[in-house]
Amino acid sequence: xxxxxxxxxxxxxxxxxxxxxxxxxxxxxxxxxxxxxxxxxxxxxxxxxxxxxxxxxxxxxxxxxxxxxxxxxxxxxx
Length: 78
Prior knowledge:
The chain is mainly alpha-helical.
């Protein structure tokens, strides 16, 4: 039961993280109309609004939590 809940939470965190990151990228692209600059946000500093930045950071945090939960799953249920 706990194993299934943990795996479900892992996928939910990963999916929500990716969706939040994509949402922030689309918001930035629509605002600046610079769709080529969207990919630079991963390795270069870009000017984001507070809302875009919140979506981006929440998405990154969710992905990191999903990775940690994946490691925990592999330790307890190989």
